[in-house]
Amino acid sequence: MGNTGPAELLAIWEAGLAHHGPGRALLLHRAARPESAADELLSLPVGEREADLYALRRALFGERMQIRAECGACGEAMEFDLDARDLGVRPRKQDGPLRVAEGEWTVEFRLPTVADLEAAAHAVAGADGRAVAGAGAHAVSGAGGAGDGLLGEDVGVGGPVAADGDEAAEAFMAAEGGDAAVASTAAARARRALLARCLVSVHRAGQPVPADRLPVAELPEPVQRKLAEAAERADPAADVTLNVACPACGEATRAELDIASYLWAELDHWARDLLLDVHLLATAYGWSEPQILALSPLRRRYYLELCADG
Ligand SMILES: [Zn+2]
Fold it and tell me: Are strands 207-208 and 199-204 parallel, antiparallel or unpaired?
């Protein structure tokens, strides 16, 4: 897991403050895989990064993930736990492109990489003149939770999308759920942008469709849904969708679990707490930051208690 002592983690956090979703996800990914270069990380399938981030999360903060969410129907605030070990499934190794046949269409495509996801999100952001990727305000896109236990939990549903491309993720959720009619136009554009990057070949009624005229927007909904399903089977961790019934109103809410945002929020919280500890101990004892960071969490806690008692 590389160098993930307090000083290194603080440095990652500090660097991440200057970034948003994709940049922070990349910083976290580098912490998880310090031996890999940035372009190598970007070329990995999305689910490979997610698996790395779940592993990093386990190493830093343990297996139990607390999820807070709001019911999409009645707004009920809910909380439940997930086990990080269940979520970071590595994508299957592919020998060649994935293939989907539906009606007169045959489509070959490859699994979206982290770079694909970001480019698709940027394409949408550019078209709309606003940032899409990594709004990053929420640690978890809310799932309708269940008070005691995760009712109707359905982890690992969804298309070849994860993390930062919220619009793209929504789009694939919509496609996967057969609910594309309600997807926003921005989400639809993001989905087409992502598909366009990942298509290898398209045949209609046995005839190849030229690459510069790939009719991504015109692919029928069943074809798009099959693409999403095939990608999900090959790379389940790319898009962890929670589907939970609300204990108050009974409605099910679907939501993405975005591990990069989730982990960033935890790191942010941890770092701010730690800096407060440094401040208190430096004030009380005159120790330097490196000296305080070198203390074990247990000793730090002990000295802080002594300060409070004094
Ligand atoms: Zn509800």
Answer: antiparallel
How far apart are the CA of 70 and the centre of ligand 1, in A?
A: 8
Percentage of residues in the chain having pLDDT higher than 90: 39
Q: What is the mean pLDDT of the chain?
A: 77
For residue 233 the two structure tokens come to 């089977």
Distance 66 CA to ligand 1 centre (A): 19
User: Any idea where the domains of the chain sit in the sequence?
Assistant: 67-80+89-259, 268-309
Length of the chain: 310
CA atoms within 13 A of residue 238's CA, in its CB half-sphere: 29
Query: How many whole angstroms from 244 Cα to the centroid of ligand 1?
Result: 10
Beta strand segments in 84-226, E: 98-102, 105-109, 199-204, 207-208
Residue 219 banded pLDDT, cuts 50, 70, 90: confident
Distance (angstroms) between ligand 1 centre and the Cα of 75 equals: 6
User: Has this prediction a pTM greater than 0.85?
Assistant: no
